[in-house]
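re: that complex we talked abt at group meeting.

here r the seqs, copy pasted straight from the sheet so there may be weird spacing, ignore it
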Amino acid sequence: MAVNANPHEEEEHNDSAIERSEEEQAAYDKAKNGEYVIHHTKDSHDFGFVTNESENKHYGFSLPVILYDEGFHFFSSSSFDHGHKVAKSDGKYFKLNSHDAKIYRCDEYGEIYESLKPWDFSITKNVIVTFLMCLLMFLLFRGIAKSYRTGLAPTGAAKFFEPIVVFIRDEIAVPNIGEKQSKKYMAYLLTVFFFIWFLNLAGMTPLGINVTGNLALTAALALITFIITTFTGNKNYWMHIFWMPGVPVPMKIILIPIELIGMVVKPFALMIRLYANMLAGHVVLGMLIVAVYSFENYFASGAFLGLTFFMNIIELLVALLQAYIFTMLTALYFGAASATAEHH
Amino acid sequence: MMDVSMIGAGLIVIGVGIGIGRIGGSAMDAIARQPEATNKIQTAMLIAAALIEGIGFAALFAA
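got the structure back, here u go
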């Protein structure tokens, strides 16, 4: 009897304990899921495919770490062991902070010095994906260019890419920039279109790549657009900024600062648009995928599975649309920079 | 948890939604009137939507 009573009592006790922690558990799960989704949209120092968190096993590649802290330090990110170990290099200790995924100086026992952050030039996941994409694009488009040596009819991959290239020339570059001037901008427009499109598509694979949803990359692309616009601007472009034709003189003076701000705001908007769209797309998809397996109900999970599939198709469209819009607006800015008097 | 900036973010999304919705609706009307000009209308629609979206995102970041 005593033996029977005890487990019963314990069971009751356990039940109440579970009931009390259920709300906490829900809140904990919610925070954990949010953290999980955000983590997957971020850059990291290793290329992970599968993580088994309960056993702390990670499957993937380690990537090289390059730090500058009074001299360069090179080592593999495997020496961090995902933030569990302290890496030693040239008498200095470094630790990967698991909260913000950044590298800090620390002492022998892993105590982080908040103020001492080394310069981080590491080949991170985003960097390696960008390099691979550059290589892929180089090989692909070189192959396509070579295929035209044998004849003007497209063969192989060129059959697929020729209409897209022609579309960018005839629908984006020529109407916005003009027949003659558009030629010198075509190389950049094509590069930026395919680069963004391919990286967006790479983000749709289950490898956890989110390069175009990274502010640094979109900032670099927008900066190149800004530099090309500024340095190829002809005298009409500068006249529209500093001495707007066709308006009274006081208005001309008021318009100078506005136009100067506009010069910076345009590429800034390009940068934010691509970054926010891709990041938001990844977060929404991540949240839907989390929702699929956080329900203990086949109908709810199935419904979210369908919704996830639908969102994936929408995101495939968005991947193309964002590349198109970036190229389109870049062409518009180039057109403004190189417009000649007869266009007005 | 309740934060005033969240209200601001909500207002931004409402504003951007109205703006892009109007562009989309007007583009639909225009395409229905002149189906042969579909390509031009779509391009102009996308540019206008992208510009509104850009301002919306900039405001969301500020919020």
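couple things i noticed - Chain B has a mean pLDDT of 87. Chain B touches chain A at residues 39, 43, 46-47, 50-51, 53-55, 57-58, 60-61 (CB under 8 Å).
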